[in-house]
């Protein structure tokens, strides 16, 4: 549409004549357009706007697009980087919604996937200076892989700058916005190109002909479009053209539905369509275009993500081609969505080998604790300790000097924030109060002024400054401007020894500062090497006169370095130089091990990968010549070793960093921290340690009273109440006359053992002096330790019989130490502690948590019987009445209770409804039906209806071989076979019963015979539980019922066999062994054997019973309905017990093999037990498949029931052997 033309002829008061807009192509333009048309609810369908910002339906409810959101593309970028093993990449994006949203998603996914991003920079197409900074960053970076989330405009600008600076060899990973921009490629001739370039322009725009006489008449309204007449960049690829095609057809389909058009019929006339109706219709669009793509819009208004992965390659004729080397398709399963053919890829610089992008970095001075994260920085090492140790040491030095009230200021970056956070946590643990904690960055001048104002207004005299030398210099300038002096500053290694901070005025503010510095180490000869040999050897022009003719020739390449010729600030200190020395030797040692170097030399031709260097550095362990031991801990850092230095002024006025102590984490805890306080000069040149407290110690006769809203270190001193102890002391004079000494030579003293007498008098003197310890304020030395009180608390709990208690204590030394003693004693006394929590008086949030935790443990019963407790969500158990609106005879409405739901009951009792008492809608007594589709009749199956819920389906005929709802012939056969076995067993039982009075039946223990026949019937019937759709009850019944009945059957056979065997083995006259194998004992043995199996099954069903589930593991297109075993241990226990009894039967049958033929049941029992053993072995293989499936498995069922039947046939032979052997009666056919 032409904006000015419509603006002139239309107003915003009437109904919009525009129903939909197809366009804009760019995300930014689409955002602007949709905001303009949003109030009119006009749908905008874009074919190439991919910005994730447009997925927000709150702001863009009427935006649709026939291209996927960048959410998928950004994730796919991370996956492709992860796929190729690149762990170190750079990132650059357009500084607009398109680039910022896309890059943000990529960075999040990259972090999740363990990909490290060296830098993430951005620019806009018009920002030339910013672009140059971006290129400089890329040039200085070490990452060989660049992820470029740019539009084609920005990419073109970036390429210009890369070309100017000749930066090549980068593996660039691109996005759809520029990766297939073919402006340099001559388009091929094909039908669609001819249409666009000729037919479209000549038909739609008649003024495009060179008919100059009519130009002014026909072409005035097409001036903006005619400039695009020869634009053919996208035509050859047809990538976005297909999206335009889909957009047009999507709009056509929505209008088709709104106009109620039917096939071979016209559409309804005079229908008024509103833009909002088009929006709703577009949401339900679902069709397939002739090129095969399915078009529909998801909840964000976008289509499914489908991308080609293309590779820029050069043909033999020099032309550039975009060769597809894989794809990403979000519509496919996760394991198939991303496919790459790496063999066809040409890498950066025309290489056939993939570029490595892994950085191995060893830093000599990077101390940030953030770098200890091995997930984000797996290949980072440093020859300096992490700030974790320095931050804790800062708290220890503050605690050492008794400063309980300090201020804190830090640099607002990772270095300062991580370090200060550790300090604050340690300070809290040590009982140090922090008056304020403020931060700023070097460029934040206004924020710095606010920080200085806070310091000026504060009362703390000690400041912990976790700053870099840049921020410290800025802070000093502001302190100087406002003339704030007298502060005792505690510093860190980043600035405490920086000579750049020393000026004529700084000692006024930093004099007496204390801080931690990297140890000063003298490396012999290093100073001379740096100042002389290094410059003379590496830079010969440094000795050349500037006005000589050779200067311009030799020195043109060293102009940037020559100003540093006389820079020697760090050389005398050599603090960080020693760390560089260690880093170089660490790499040398790792390379030495990888190259397998020996005294004779190193192996030749070895290829070393970056990851090998990383692994070798982890195992480095050596000692340098100045005595330091070098190795890297699990975080890639070395052990913490600091000097504690003090800013002092010499007699000549020069500033010195004098060491006054050290901190060495490699030593034992009691030796790590050493300070020589006598050598310290404090702030302002004072020799006396400054005080930094919020409130002074209360004088005698007063006590502390906390100040509201302030830390615990701030309090008022108020007079003690009457009767309270103050610090006043009472005089007491004790005089002991030493009479014995004056009479030591008298006979009475000598005879009375003068040594013991003097010792007795000395002990009496001490007894008198002990009374003095009860006078005055109790101290650590004059009152019993909490050791006894903590133990006594445990004893009183034990005495009262309480075995379940909770504990809460103050989060300080008093509470923590006392509670630790109580908990240890409680454990020894058998007292269980449900929870142990702690908080400090100022920690209101923590106190709330303590109360919350206590509420979580609440468990009691109110007087009307309800149990009150809170679940993990903070709610009580769900208990509802189900009520039904009913009308009484008088017309009043009543809420009749017709059931309940109680989640506290077992699952099968949760939900109870009495349907007989329900009155349905319309006062009907019959329940109404509410289904989307009726159940499918036999011979058909469900087919989901597109765009509708799962309950809505069509019934279509079943394909050949599928099971429908028809009754199967195989099922009838299987049931018939099972019933035939039952009938056969019952026939034998009837024959036995008719001959129950015969001697052979009586002698054969008719009870066991009938019980055996009964168990055989149950064995046949058990097979019926394996037929049909698995349910909760049938799954539990299958294996357990079969196991119990099978054991009952074997127990009967076992009992009968033992009796026969013992009857023939007990051959000694007068032997009474048979009295232990009478009928009662046989019944007891059967009961005991069966009871054991029952107990096993009960445990199985109680702990983890079998359950029905849908198995989609074996066939993706088929759902197998089967029973899960629940507990596999229970299943194998049931089978194992059956196998144990079967083996026992077999052993007894083997022992009875020599019995006379007339009584030898052994061969029949052996046959039965051998077959049972086979069934026992194949049962684990049969069981998983012996379940009805959606496609049917009759052969599995047949095998299973046949197995049971064969077992039982052996038992029937055994049961009827008795009759056959003795009577030769009419049952010989058995």
Automatic annotation (TrEMBL):
Protein name, UniProt field: G-protein coupled receptors family 3 profile domain-containing protein
Its membrane topology: Multi-pass membrane protein
Ranges annotated as spanning the membrane: 972-993, 1008-1028, 1040-1064, 1084-1103, 1124-1151
InterPro entries: ANF_lig-bd_rcpt, GPCR_3, GPCR_3_9-Cys_dom, GPCR_3_9-Cys_sf, GPCR_3_C, GPCR_3_Ca_sens_rcpt-rel, GPCR_3_CS, GPCR_3_vmron_rcpt_2
Compartment list: Cell membrane
PROSITE patterns linked: G_PROTEIN_RECEP_F3_3, G_PROTEIN_RECEP_F3_4
Keywords per UniProt: Cell membrane, G-protein coupled receptor, Glycoprotein, Membrane, Receptor, Signal, Transducer, Transmembrane, Transmembrane helix
Sequence ranges assigned to domain G-protein coupled receptors family 3 profile in this UniProt record: 732-782, 970-1177
Organism of provenance: Cirrhinus molitorella
